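ok new one. same drill as before - structure tokens go in, u give me an amino acid for every spot. 197 of them this time. try not to just spam alanines like last time pls lmao
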């Protein structure tokens, strides 16, 4: 059955079929929410936000207009709005993240130094993404982590495709600029150490 057929059946009273829609989109919505929340160190709320997204979708299924957007686009929009609402509730709350308590899964052939450097890179990228504006962060996560097309991102964010391309360009440039200072210093330091040897 297509999404539209499932939606019509649910609206006609076969509410158990909504579970099939959840099954189809659960992992994609979780990935999106996880990356939206991870950039501000609140990823522990992912499961709750995902359930809230599907609950809101179920409650508002009558308002879904299939001629205006795909069901997946509508779900991403609900998820995004739910995350933004949750982040507004926590505005001003400083979430401390004790990096030393985080366990890293490392392969046996990775040295402790490589593991620390890898964790540091992940942390820097996460921080750079969290410094983006909300729209830039959403566009970047939808494109890079969820692999959505420009058109679908445009529908989710309510922007023309040209604006999405511009948002992504600025987001990537901002992340690169933030990381350049780290990597520039890192490579200069490494080069100087090599020169001394």
């Amino acid at each position: 059955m297509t999404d539209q057929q499932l939606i019509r059946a649910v609206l006609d009273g076969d509410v158990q079929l909504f579970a099939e829609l959840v099954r189809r989109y659960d992992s994609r919505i979780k990935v999106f929410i996880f990356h939206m929340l991870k950039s501000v160190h609140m990823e522990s709320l992912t499961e709750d936000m995902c359930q809230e997204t599907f609950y809101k979708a179920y409650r508002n299924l009558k308002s879904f207009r299939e001629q205006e957007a795909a069901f997946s686009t509508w779900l991403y929009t609900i998820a995004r709005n739910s995350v933004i609402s949750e982040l507004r509730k926590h505005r001003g709350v400083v979430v401390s993240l004790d990096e030393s308590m985080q366990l890293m899964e490392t392969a046996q052939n990775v040295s402790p130094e490589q593991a620390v450097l890898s964790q540091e890179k992940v942390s820097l990228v996460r921080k750079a993404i969290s410094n983006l504006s909300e729209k830039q962060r959403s566009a970047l996560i939808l494109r890079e982590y969820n692999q959505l097309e420009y058109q679908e991102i445009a529908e989710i964010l309510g922007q023309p495709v040209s604006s999405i391309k511009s948002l992504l360009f600025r987001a990537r440039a901002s992340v690169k600029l933030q990381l350049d200072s780290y990597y520039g210093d890192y490579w200069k330091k490494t080069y100087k150490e090599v020169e001394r040897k």
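Residues 19 and 86 are 25 Å apart (CA to CA). and btw The chain has two domains: 1-95, 111-197.
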